[in-house]
Amino acid sequence: MHLTLTQTTINQQTYWLGTTPTGLAFVGRANGPRDEWQAFFKSANIHYDQQACQELHDYLTGQRQHFDIPLDQTTGTPLQHQVWQALTRIPYGQTATYSQLATMINHPTAVRAVASAVGKNPLLIVIPCHRIRRKDGQLGGYRGGLPMKRALLALENARLPK
């Protein structure tokens, strides 16, 4: 797979984005390592993707609530694809639990597998896995780290109509 990497800085946080000819395929965590993409892909060439950077910038500065860029979701298992698609149906500013997510994809007893699929989401922010909480209301894990998850949820909550 040909992956093009782009580095962008938004709100003093650096993000690495990976695109293929099909679309956006990877979003790294805030200030994450340059080679974080290697957990998902084998090779990359560095190039600048203006549209992906602009949409991420607009989201992180509160000017966008969803993404329009094409996505490359050729990696992952069928269950992961179901989970990632369901994540995109959780509305901006709202959260769901892993159990609710498992029910959304008609696998209510597969909560652990669903949680694992959430954790393997290569498109942080764009596929909003930050909107998932544990059943007890706690945040749970996040590849970008809990400070990033808290910041994304706070950003979305601040932009909702009061």
Please supply descriptive tags for the structure shown above.
about 160 residues, alpha/beta, 4-stranded mixed sheet, two-stranded parallel sheet, 5 helices, globular
Helix and strand string, N-terminal first?
EEEEHHEHHEH
Radius of gyration: 15 Å
**Coarse shape:** globular
Sheet/helix structural class: alpha/beta
Number of DSSP strands? 6
Total DSSP helices: 5
| Average predicted local confidence, pLDDT | 92
User: How would a crystallographer describe the biggest sheet?
Assistant: 4 strands, mixed
Low-confidence stretches: none
Helix content: 25-40%
Q: How would you name the oligomeric state of the polypeptide chains in this document?
A: single chain
Major beta sheet, strand line-up: 3-2-1-4
Structure report:
This protein has 162 residues and is an alpha/beta fold. Helix 2 crosses helix 4 (111-119) and helix 3 crosses helix 4. The mean pLDDT is 92. The strands form 2 sheets. The chain has a 4-stranded mixed beta sheet. Strands 5-6 form a two-stranded parallel ribbon. 31% of the residues are buried. 31% of the residues lie in helices and 15% in strands.
